[in-house]
What does this fold into?
Amino acid sequence: MAEDYITDGMLETFLYESSQLLEKLQELVLENQDEDYFDDGAINEIFRIMHTIKGSSGIMMYDNITKATHRLEDVFFCLRESHPPVDHEKLCELVLEVGDFVTGQLDKIQEGGEPDGDEKPIVEKVSDFLTKIKENIAGKSDKAAVKAGEILLAPPVPEVDEESASSDEPQKYYIAPVATSDSKFYHIKITYCQDTLMSNIRAYTAVFSLKEIAEDLMYIPEDIITNESSHDVIMKDGFAIALQCKESKEKVIELIDHLAGVEKIDINEVDSNEFLAGFVPEEVIEQREAEAQVPQEEKENYVIEKPKAVKKPAKAAPKDLQSYISVNIKKMDVLMDLIGELVIAEAVVLQNPDLKVPGLELANFNKAAAQLTKITGDLQDGIMRIRMIPLANTFQKMKRIVYDTSHKLGKDIELEMIGEETEVDKNIIEHISDPIMHLIRNSVDHGIEEKEDRIKNHKPEKGKITIEAKNDGDKVCIIVSDDGKGLNPDALLDKAEKNGLLTKAREAYTEKEAFNLITLPGFSTKEQVTELSGRGVGMDVVVKNIQEINGTLEIDSVQGHGSTMTIKIPLTLAIIKGIVMKVASTTFVVSTNSVKEFLQLREQTLHKQPDGGEFIMIRGDSYPVIRLKERFGMKDTPDSENAILAFIEHEDKHACILVDELLGEQEIVIKALPDYMKKVKGISGCTQLGDGSIGLIIDPGVII
Amino acid sequence: MSDMEDQDKMEAPVQDSNKQKDRFMTFKCGDEYYGIAISYVEEITTIQSITEVPQMEPFVKGLINLRGKIVPVIDVRIRFGKEPIPYNDRTCIMILKVKDTLIGLIIDTISEVVNIPAEEIVSPPKGEKGNGADRFVYGIGKVDGQVKLLIKPETLIFDSPEEESEEEICE
It folds into this structure.
């Protein structure tokens, strides 16, 4: 049965490809949501996406996905054929709903479960919609209605296992090698794009598509499903099909043309003798060569060249022309580790004590060494850059959020995106998505006013939310702004006072401080709690999430003109600049950001409090002194000659930590302590230092 | 998934379970020889600089940098409640992979890989409490008249130290 040939690789490819298609689908819908209709390109594209997902989910035996996509495909087929007037908004919703349904099922599959979602409600919805369109068409043109009707009557996609060929229902699709007078014979050759994965499965999809019309069908290689190495054969020689059917060449091409990964289709009409003679590969090759010379004039040959990037055809923006591969992050981590090793090995060689022998002539060595250092540096940079991914995807998601929430609230809002190509570390992207989503929701819900209010205030009826990303030194700024009503500092203060959140006299609050009140836990300005926001959790969670990745949130607002939220986050979490210090025999690292200054111990006087706590006076203020040895319960050794006080700051708290020796500043790659080590309070991770030893990273927030 | 397998192959080329059956890596700690099933053993390195981590159990000596991987190491002598001795050039770190955790054991001297078929393994004596280390030993292997104490790394590494605190360090 089918399960026998469904391999993990197939599943992976299916999931990857389908999710790509769904993303594309969502993008398409959101792009066109403000128009009154889908243009032909979009209709075709959605049709193709649905058809492909239908086909591949059919192969994978995910029935509910197949059914849902099949029905939507019917709708778009109908739209494509007869362009009936439709309720565009409803259609957009419908497409997104089907997309969400499939995405949900894919998620289930990804997590190893069965896609058991019930497709019936959604299929019904789509069917209703289709019926309505059909009625419209019926009024418009009988012919089109017949066509649409036909497609409606088409039975669901047959199960794709070979054995059931002999059973009752799917039989009509299977080979009936009786040539009638109007049967036509074709030799088809499909060439797949260079980077196509699992071309044997794709070839099967093509065969599968053709079976619907085929009277007789043969293909080479024959063992595409059972033999994975047939992939290589197909990639090398193409996939050859001999087809007998009644359909026109155009119809045949249409059936297989849209399948993913297809680069080129050669189709030849032949007579029955040639057909029976089977494949003559040489001939095909000759023809292909001939085509290369006179591609357009060839009478009996159709050559369809497809753009290379099949997944993102048509309107492909320049950035889409780049080719991407997806790599398991574990492989990248291995690479990172190896580079770290390389850098250390390099240091060991270049600073080898053997080189210190007096009288050595090292000019050439040094030249070569400098070159090596440069290359390893570049390599390290390059690896780091691989981890950087653009914010575009995250921003795309926001489009959907705006669409959903604004529809629910009955507001008309457009979202402008600027700088979505800005890149940040992958880890950060994962953390940033939720906070941005929250800010956007807040803007839609609280920021942008109702239509009537906007008109009263002489603002354009349509609200506008802008999301912008830009680089700012070693930080990335993400700015969410709206042209809504803005924040009212007085109202905020009132509210905070009522909730007992004020910590000082009301008059002492600056405007900015008043804005920051909204980030306090338990603060919500909206009088009525809505479905979307206003539960009083929100901004404080946003701030917490942002702080987790060492980011900050700034709030700015002009009453009546809108507000601006700026998130500042570091480019990467993985690398920080750190001060390396030695305490007894252990090396510690503190993030350079939190160190304000260094003081030499011997020039300072430490004061002792009665309880034994020590403090130091700096410029008239007192600050506690933390002895790391004591704090971490390490062996006590006398203060060293070079003992240093590092003045560190975390948020508003300050303290001095006493260390034995200052070793220098260095870029460090943060690693977690191995799980085996129980969590040590005050140590947030460890890192590999230049000499290969390990430093422990101090978490200033906990230490102070 | 396949990458993980690749990686495993890379690190432990002899991952053939048939070949590994009944094979033990033996090492010396104090006067006795101990054995650990070879399927646990990733590699063996010489002693290298260890970064002390504060607030750890006494037998957790700290972290080493194993080609970019940061690996905790524990001193088997201290774990067995014996007097620590200074490390010398015969001291080794045996890197084990136990339940997906990499961990290093500091041992006095590495010995050899021996074959101990199941019928040559007897249970350790019961009842009498030894030096507190006996609970790590699950079997006694007999090889050419010699005796190897066979250890389950899981107990050695993961057993919570609280249980043993009374019995430990009584030698």
Remarks:
- The CA atoms of residues 476 and 569 of chain A lie 5 Å apart.
